[in-house]
Design a protein that fits this description.
With 217 residues, the chain is mainly beta. It has 1 helix and 15 strands; from the N terminus they run βββαββββββββββββ. Helices cover 6% and strands 40% of the residues. The longest helix is centred in the first third of the chain and has 12 residues.
Length: 217
């Protein structure tokens, strides 16, 4: 079977036994200021999600398999899907059982692209500050929007919310009616150059394996 990219969640992310993770953003700003304490910021490009992943001690063979998958990415030439391991489901529904097979979509986007209204949620469903979600958009290539809920909101009896803040700003290619993934959301990533540590083997086990990732848009 030919290796295909980006690696799916099942191919790579689901194979990782993570011990610690730092999930954050890398801002791409130009900052300046004056001697009187005034500060200016220009956003040169949208922020990118980044992650630092450390894996648990594992059998040597398992560690070799994960390292082989990473090497097959050919540095930053190829990508994979990865989500925040702390945000696999909304906080109000930690197993995703309430969400179930609901088809959640974007009802509307604010004019400044900073907020989204959702539809198709279970009645009374709560989206909590810090929850993550994915929106797929575009084609050739398909792009992956990865967002964070910026305020807590509850769906009404029809499964709709008002517009609620999200981070970062919503890309121009995303529009009302597109599907929203709340269960195991993910973004497209590459391994940061020089960050992969395959780990140190000791007898039957390998420890210290890990890597850093950055979002690829």
């Amino acid at each position: 079977m030919t290796v295909t990219y980006p690696y799916s969640l099942a191919t790579f992310a689901d194979q990782l036994a993570i011990s610690t993770v730092v999930w954050d953003i890398q801002r791409n700003d130009e900052n300046s200021g004056g001697g009187d304490g005034r500060l200016w910021q220009a956003e040169l490009s949208s922020p990118l999600w980044i992650g630092t992943v450390e894996l648990i001690m594992m059998p040597n063979n398992r560690a070799k398999q994960i390292a082989a998958l990473i090497r097959k990415l050919h540095g930053i030439q190829e990508s994979f899907y990865l989500g925040d391991p702390l945000s696999l489901y909304p906080q109000s529904d930690p197993t995703g059982s309430v969400l179930g097979a609901s088809t959640v979509t974007i009802a509307s986007i604010s004019s400044d692209r900073s907020a989204i209204a959702f539809s198709g949620l279970p009645a009374g469903y709560v989206l909590t500050l810090g929850d993550k979600f994915t929106v797929l958009y575009g084609s050739n290539p398909q792009r992956v929007g990865f967002f964070e809920i910026s305020e807590t909101a509850t769906a009404n009896g029809s499964g709709n919310t008002g517009q609620i803040g999200v981070f970062p700003y919503v890309q121009s290619g995303i529009s009302a009616g597109q599907a929203v993934r709340l269960a195991k959301p993910y973004c497209k990533c590459v391994i940061m150059p020089g960050s992969h540590n395959p780990g140190s083997a000791r007898k039957l086990h390998t420890e210290g394996a890990g890597f850093k990732v950055i979002q690829k848009k």
